[in-house]
Amino acid sequence: MTVDLNVPEDTRLHLLPGEWYPQPGEPADRGELVAVVTVYRQEIAGVVWVKGHVCAYPHPDCGTGACFEHQVITAAIRANLDGSR
Fold first, then answer.
1. Which of 43, 44, 59, 75 makes an SS bond possible with 3, Cβ 3.0 to 4.6 Å?
2. How far apart are alpha carbons 60 and 50 in whole angstroms?
């Protein structure tokens, strides 16, 4: 299902433990601050794929287009966008 999420590039998402998945179906045990490259709007089971950077914001030093590419709970993204974080 396509979700109504408009997340501009360079938006910073503060993700709490359990709100993103280092491996599909395996919730993270740590939080992360992600500078968004893109958020895919195809939601599956309450999560979407997010590409971004967790390195040296605002000038990424990882040498790649995105060093963070993981599934993120849609509600966590919305909490960031509505100012709850």
1. 43
2. 16
- In tens, the pLDDT along 28-82 reads 999 999 999 999 999 999 999 999 999 987 889 999 999 999 999 999 999 999 9
27 near 18, Cβ under 8 Å? yes
Contacts of 67 (CB under 8 A, 6+ apart): 52, 53, 54, 55, 60
Q: Cα–Cα distances in Å, from 74 out to 18, 34, 44, 56, 62?
A: 12, 14, 10, 25, 26
Q: How far apart are CA 52 and CA 80, in angstroms?
A: 15
Phi, psi (degrees; rounded to nearest 5) at 55 = -110, 140
* 35 close to 27: Cβ distance less than 8 angstroms: no
Report yes or no on whether pTM surpasses 0.85. yes
